[in-house]
Amino acid sequence: MADEVSDRRSQIVNAAIDDIIELGLHRVTHRSIASRASVPPGSLTYYFGGLHEIFEAAFEHMYLSMSREYRVKLEQVASTDAAIDAVADLITGDYMDERQMRALFEMYSFGSFNATVRAYCHEWMTLSREALSLHFPERTAQALDALIEGWPMHRYFERRDLDRAYVRDVVQAVVRLS
User: Fold this and answer.
1) Domain extent listing, the chain
2) CATH code of the domain occupying 2-177
3) Per-residue pLDDT tens digits for 62-100
4) What's residue 127's pLDDT?
5) N or C: lower Cβ tally within 10 Å for the chain?
């Protein structure tokens, strides 16, 4: 029974993430999630207290999953040069695809007025900086994290790829400042 509950909750959370990405948070409804999850609409209220709890669970799942991927990329490298390359890869598209970027925008927007998701945003930043701190001092990790968050946003809205060589040079310059 516990596995069934966990599976159904996961099914609903994954459907919510897909809905958030494809529709935008403002257009997601109990019905749209239930339809995508192939569950009766009433079952959503059995597992969650309302849409805000579904969104919170979806964003928690998303940030934890993306944080793990981020950390793994940085754990796989052994030298500062390799870490610089890993950061350049994260910035230029190796880390977040277009769907994940849209989900991130929705998470930050919802987090601007939902305290639980705001805490998730803060925790995500903390986890990102901890992963970067495997190779870089704290202040450098903070600056690199801002580049990793911000530069892909520019790529997304400008609809053009970033020059990886230039991005790597900028990352290297930030690292040299420390």
Assistant:
1) 2-177
2) 1.10.357.10
3) 999 999 999 999 999 999 999 999 999 999 986 788 888
4) 97
5) N
- Distance between CA atoms of 32 and 12, rounded to whole angstroms? 11
Cα Rg of the chain, angstroms: 18
Helix (H) or strand (E) holding 13: helix 2-23
Q: What one-letter code names the amino acid at 52?
A: H
How much is the pLDDT for 157? 92
The per-residue b/e assignment along 74-98, b for 16 or more CB within 10 angstroms, e otherwise, is: beebeeeeebbbbbbbbbbbebbee
DSSP 62-118: HHHHHHHHHHHHHHT--SHHHHHHHHHHIIIIIS--HHHHHHHHHHHHHHTT-HHHH
Instruction: Give CA–CA dist 60/110, Å, rounded.
Output: 12
Q: What gap in Å lies between CA 62 and CA 108, rounded to an integer?
A: 12
pLDDT of the residue at 95: 72
**Is residue 108 packed enough to be buried (19+ CB in 10 Å), middle (13-18) or exposed (0-12)?**
middle
Which stretches in the chain have pLDDT values below 70?
A: 1-5, 94
Cβ atoms within 10 Å of 42's Cβ, excluding its own: 9
